[in-house]
Amino acid sequence: VAPIYSEDVLYALVGENFTFPVEIKQRIEEITWKKNKDKVAEQDGQTPPVYFAPLQSRSVLKENGNLTIFNLEKSDAGAYELHYWDSLNDGYLKFILEVLDPPSEPRISHSIQGDNLVLNCTSDFQRPVTYTWNLSNDPRSHQIQEFSIPIKNIDVTTKATCFITFSQTKKSSEISLIQCIS
Questions:
Q1: Could you give the number of structural domains in the chain?
Q2: Could you tell me the CATH number of the domain that includes residue 82?
């Protein structure tokens, strides 16, 4: 049987905890994780996993092949390979991990179009982010980058907050809406 083979590019941020998306259903006899051809973790049978530098004190290898790295650093970026043996077959999974600096706070710009205040949220981040708007006087969240609010719904206390989300990291900026229309 041919080994299972795939290669995925994955993105995570400095400081996050990251788990490679591995789900091996069958029982695994041996697991070896390599980064750029150097061993970083291995497990043989029922013995506890062994870890190697640079992941020695900040990674966990689970029985299903999952490898979690804690408190990611830029230097954790690279080509990772999982080799496993399930007593019948060899399996290989390859991942390219890119570790990015976290995004900075989003920028909010505004304009008036007819009877509406239009807010725009922008991010300088190099990957697509999720945009969410929250209004202080509205319990709903709005997953959209440009947000239009009828001017008649704005009072002196209304604030709008834009959140950008990438991976497990969320950043926000807030604006008082009365300053946009006065």
A1: 2
A2: 2.60.40.10
Q: Nearest CA to 97 among 140, 40, 29? A: 40
Edge to edge, what strands does the sheet with 107-113 contain? 107-113, 116-122, 146-150
Residue 2 lies in a domain: no
Write the CB contacts of 89 (distance below 8 Å, at least 6 apart in sequence).
1, 3
The residue from 100, 127, 162 where one domain ends is 100
Check residue 137 and give its pLDDT.
86
In this structure, is the dihedral angle defined by the CA atoms of residues 55, 60, 66 and 72, taken in order, positive or negative? Answer: negative
Token pair of 82 as six digits: 């999982």
Alpha carbon distance 114, 61 (integer Å): 57
Instruction: Please give the mean pLDDT across all residues of the chain.
Output: 92
Average pLDDT over residues 109-113: 96
CA distance 162 to 107: 8
Q: Which domain holds residue 23?
A: 7-100
pLDDT tens for each residue of 9-42: 999 999 999 999 887 888 889 999 999 999 999 9
Distinct helix (H) and strand (E) counts, the chain? 1, 16
pLDDT for the residue numbered 6? 60
Residue 1 resides in a domain: no
